[in-house]
Amino acid sequence: MRNRRICKASAARPIRQRGLTLIELLVAITVLAFVAVLGWRGLDSIVRARIALTGDLEQTRGMQLAFAQLQSDCAHLVASSVLPDRVPLAAEPGRLKLVRTVFADNQPSRLQVVTYRVRDGVLTRRESPETRDLGELDMLWQGASGDTDAAQEVVLQSGVSEMNMRLWIGGSIGWRSGAEAAQLTAPPVPPAYSPLGQTTQLPLLTGLEVSMKLTGQNTGLLKIFLLGAV
User: Fold this and answer.
1) Mean pLDDT over all residues of the chain?
2) What percent of the chain has pLDDT over 90?
3) pLDDT averaged per 10 residues, the chain (length 230)
4) DSSP H or E stretch at residue 113
5) Where are the alpha helices (DSSP H) in the chain?
6) 155-194: b (≥16 Cβ within 10 Å) or e
7) Is residue 184 part of a domain?
8) How many domains does the chain divide into?
């Protein structure tokens, strides 16, 4: 009977549940805040890395498109037999000019002056109207040289700090800068003739090396193009 009374008394007594103290709650909040800060920093670093990677991919894609366009222009460089007394290509730091052949369906081929230029960190391309008149072609060439032509510029790539070029000259001459290549390939005035009465054969431009450096990068991008491959 006594045991039953004790059990009944124990059952009637309420059970007290122990909760968190203020110190324990503050410790838990501090730990959660620390974990949240670590997670935010990790997420922020991932977002920043993704933004930087996206920017690099956009720059790489822009350079690929610019090089693809330049490769097409170099492949259609006018043959020396079409312009025997003119230089079809001129390269200098930050600017490249060339005369390319334009083909159209059911129409005779025409000539066009194309200019690549880096100015204020932006690589642009301009193309003149097509023509079959050599006098007009000379005017278009001079206009491209002095930036007085009315051709509209097309932006190919931004963030370009510099563009340097070299030309490969046939006849065991090899790579030369734009100024040296212009001196070696420029036709003599008046034309020089050999003792047999034949025109002197000038060295031919067969290759173009283009090096571009983007802003903030230590190394540049380099590509070599064949001239007049088509």
Assistant:
1) 79
2) 22
3) 53 58 81 82 77 71 88 90 82 90 86 92 92 90 83 88 87 78 60 42 79 82 83
4) strand 107-119
5) 2-12, 22-75, 134-145, 178-185
6) ebbebbeebbbbbbbeeeeeebebeebbeebebeeeeeee
7) yes
8) 1
Distance (Å, rounded) from C-alpha 162 to C-alpha 54? 22
Q: Sheet of 160-169: strands edge to edge?
A: 174-177, 160-169, 205-214, 221-226
Q: Domain for residue 222, yes or no?
A: yes
Domain limits at 128?
A: 58-226
Q: What is the DSSP string of 155-193?
A: EEEE-EEEEEEEEEETTTTEEEEHHHHHHHHSPPSSPPB
Tokens of 137: 């072609």
- What is the radius of gyration, based on Cα positions, of the chain? 36
4 located within any domain: no
What's the pLDDT score for residue 196?
40
Q: Which is it for the CA torsion 124, 128, 130, 135, positive or negative? A: negative
Terminal CA-to-CA distance of the chain, rounded, Å?
A: 115
Amino acid at site 171: G
H or E element, residue 125: strand 122-127
Nearest CA to 71 among 179, 168, 207, 170? Answer: 207
